[in-house]
Specification:
The chain has about 700 residues and is α+β, with helices and mostly antiparallel strands. About 60% of the residues lie in helices and about 5% in strands. Strand 6 and strand 7 form a beta hairpin. Belongs to the organo anion transporter (TC 2.A.60) family.
Length: about 700
């Protein structure tokens, strides 16, 4: 009696619960009858799909507005490529330690913290817009004069005006502010990469740990399907935002005389970062309410098939216990680094990691597959970053339309390619040899489709003072003598086009124009300049750059690019299978991690810088800002096309060569196995049959 009185309250409640129920089972607690939605793995899959979608949208948004950021802040393509690559710097620096921490930490809460950091980085990315002065597309006009009025005309007073404006605009404060703006953007991109570190690895492992073993592939498939729409949405958001003027929050009183087709147009690039940062912050909220561990899912999803109803049937006790048994419990996996990592300290983990890295890189198939994926990723990173700018320059289309084409054509077809590759591997049950063949065919067709791209374009139109006539001597005076009395400012940019001769002038002043007329036409107003001493007949010339003579080729060009992206994406799943089936069981987890790490270090980080540097070498006229080289105004279109497409061709050729070597090695290995199998050794034959019987269910499971 005394012992029972000393029993703790919770034990007494537990005993009271077991007395009134048959079989001694505890009566259900009313709170357990209504389990929290945050204890549902299905709700976690939904939240994580939305978060990864928003995170990829904010990560990819800069690529959709890269040319706009260059114009707004006077950056070269090399600098903007480095800015885009800094997203990967922060990510790569910390991704290795994710495999160390594993389940030691509160994964949902860490995912939420990473998402909040990414949202703050997105907001930080917009700070340069707010601390900078309003964008002035005509630097020669004073603040109290409406831009584009008479500042660019051929007037003698321009000499004093230009000298005063140049002296006032260039100061140590201006240069310091420019450096601060660039530093803020680089910091924001680094933090954006750091914030994305825990999101995907911890989310995937959390889903795999607490979902039913039969449901885990379905959940991960849904997750990846939703996630792949992120880059497409980033380009779509960029297309919408760049139609708006950059200073939409502080428009000048007299309005602006620009259209989105004007080469001086700068869209509201910062607004997309605010929208995507808000989406990431909203998607991060539920993660602070998920538990560190939740009960493992007990029900297997069964779908309607041949008229059967959808049912969520509970798994029998025996099946559940067998399904919950982890493969890591088997004795042959005790040496798996991924399994013993939680028992290591950080120092021990860092010491062991290089050993496993070298052991994995010694595997020829693994090394060649990683090299082929590095080539493919380099091609994809360069195209994702600079394809919008290439389309703008080569075909004279707006940044908004270029993003629309990529978001509606290239990204969806690339997603279709990944799905088709996975279906072919699954339905045809392709082994390593056939996976290598599929990769080789996909890379070969992609290379063939990229060949016509070299010829789909046209040469640059003539720009007075920049594009000299054939046979002209180098080192001539930059501008003709017809406008010597005009005192044109050297840093002004207000292009006009003589449509009769397709000659472009940097400003009306450089064309010798002395008057300006605005003609009202339906839906818009057209600006014309007259009395131009450098134009045959005195003009008129129209405001804006000359249109490209091959703008009609933009759709065929994009169709070929998109089909090539789809065929390259077909190789994604079979090449992934080559890694999973080519390394040891105990090294699979870290092999995949090493693969993604090498792709970031060797492809996603250097490729935008390489492409940007190649684009800069094709520039023929740089804008000057306070004595330093700023944004490029004019490119040699033929050189730009050959170098940009040539880099893509180079990486595709490297990938094709790697897949050819992989196929040769696989055929040699297959030939050796057949030779061993034909030897009259009954013991060896029985051993081979037994090993094949063990390997078959494993391959089907992978």
């Amino acid at each position: 009696m005394g012992e029972e009185l000393q029993m703790p309250d919770k034990d007494a409640k537990a005993m009271m619960g077991t007395e009134d129920t048959p079989g001694g089972k505890a009566s259900p607690n009313p709170q357990n009858l209504r389990p929290s939605v945050f204890h549902s793995i299905k709700f976690f899959v939904l939240c994580h799909s939305l978060l990864q979608l928003a995170q990829l949208m904010i990560s990819g948004y800069l690529k959709s507005s890269i040319s706009t950021v260059e114009k707004r802040f006077g950056l070269s393509s090399q600098t903007s490529g480095l800015l885009a690559a800094f997203n990967e710097v922060g990510n790569t620096a910390l991704i290795v330690f994710v495999s160390y921490f594993g389940s030691r930490v509160h994964r949902p809460r860490l995912i939420g913290c990473g998402a909040i950091l990414a949202a703050l980085a997105g907001i930080l990315m917009t700070v340069p817009h707010f601390i900078s002065e309003p964008y002035r597309y005509d630097h020669t006009s004073p603040a109290d004069m409406s831009q584009d009025f008479e500042a660019s005309l051929c007037l003698p007073s321009n000499k004093a005006l230009s000298s005063a404006s140049s002296n006032s605009s260039c100061s140590s404060y201006t240069e310091a502010r420019h450096l601060a703006v660039v530093g803020i953007m680089f910091t924001a991109q680094t933090l954006l990469g750091v914030g994305g570190v825990p999101i995907q690895p911890f989310g995937i492992s959390y889903i795999d740990d607490f979902s039913h073993n039969s449901n885990s592939p379905l959940y991960l498939g849904v997750l990846f399907a939703v996630t792949m729409m992120g880059p497409g949405m980033a380009y779509g958001l960029g297309s919408l935002m760049l139609r708006l003027y950059v200073d939409i929050d502080r428009m000048p009183e007299g309005g602006i005389n620009l259209t989105s087709k004007d080469p001086r147009w700068v869209g509201a690039w910062w607004l997309g970062f605010l929208i995507s940062a808000g989406a990431v912050a909203l998607a991060a909220i539920p993660y602070f309410f998920f538990p560190k561990e939740m009960p493992k899912e007990k029900q297997e999803l069964r779908f309607r098939r041949k008229g059967l109803e959808v049912s969520d049937l509970p798994v029998s006790k025996g099946e559940d216990s067998s399904s919950e048994q982890s493969p890591a419990d088997s004795p042959e996996k005790k040496d798996n680094l991924a399994q013993i990592a939680p028992d290591l300290t950080v120092i021990q983990f860092i010491k062991v990691f290089p050993r496993v890295l070298l052991r994995t890189l010694r595997h020829p198939i693994f090394l060649l597959v990683v090299l082929s994926q590095v080539c493919m990723s380099s091609m994809a990173a360069g195209m994702a970053t600079f394809l919008p700018k290439f389309l703008e320059r080569q075909f004279s289309i707006t940044a908004s339309y270029a993003n629309l084409l990529i978001g509606c054509l290239t990204i969806p077809l690339a997603i279709v390619g990944i799905v088709v590759g996975g279906i072919l591997v699954k339905r045809l049950r392709l082994g390593p040899l056939h996976c290598g063949t599929l990769c080789l065919l996909g890379a070969l067709c992609c290379l063939i489709l990229s060949t016509p791209l070299f010829f789909m374009g046209c040469s640059s139109h003539q720009v007075a003072g920049i594009s000299h006539q054939p046979g002209a001597q180098p080192g001539l005076e930059l501008f003709p003598g017809c406008m010597e009395s005009c005192s044109c400012p050297s840093d002004d940019f207000n292009p006009v086009c003589d449509s009769s001769t397709r000659v472009e002038y940097i400003t009306p002043c450089h064309a010798g124009c002395t008057s300006r007329v605005v003609q009202e036409v339906p839906d818009k107003s057209q600006v014309l300049y007259n009395n131009c001493s450098c134009v045959a007949g005195g003009g008129p010339v129209s405001a804006g750059s000359c249109d490209s003579a091959c703008s009609h080729l933009v759709l065929p060009f994009m169709i070929l690019v998109s089909l090539g992206a789809a065929l390259a994406s077909v190789t994604h799943t079979p090449s992934f299978m080559l890694i999973l089936r080519g390394v040891k069981k105990e090294d699979k987890t870290l092999a995949v991690g090493i693969q993604f790490m090498l792709m970031r270090v060797l492809a996603w980080m250097p490729s935008p810088v390489i492409h940007g540097s190649a684009i800069d070498t094709t520039c023929v006229y740089w804008a000057q800002s306070c004595g330093r080289r700023a944004v490029c105004r004019y490119y040699d279109h033929d050189l730009l096309r050959n170098r940009f497409i040539g880099l893509q061709f180079f990486f595709k050729t490297g990938s094709l060569a790697c897949f050819a070597l992989i196929l040769a090695i696989l055929r040699q290995q297959d030939k050796e196995e057949r030779t061993k199998a034909t030897k009259p050794n009954p013991g060896l034959q029985q051993q081979l049959l037994a090993s094949e019987a063990k390997k078959e269910p494993e391959e089907s499971r992978v």
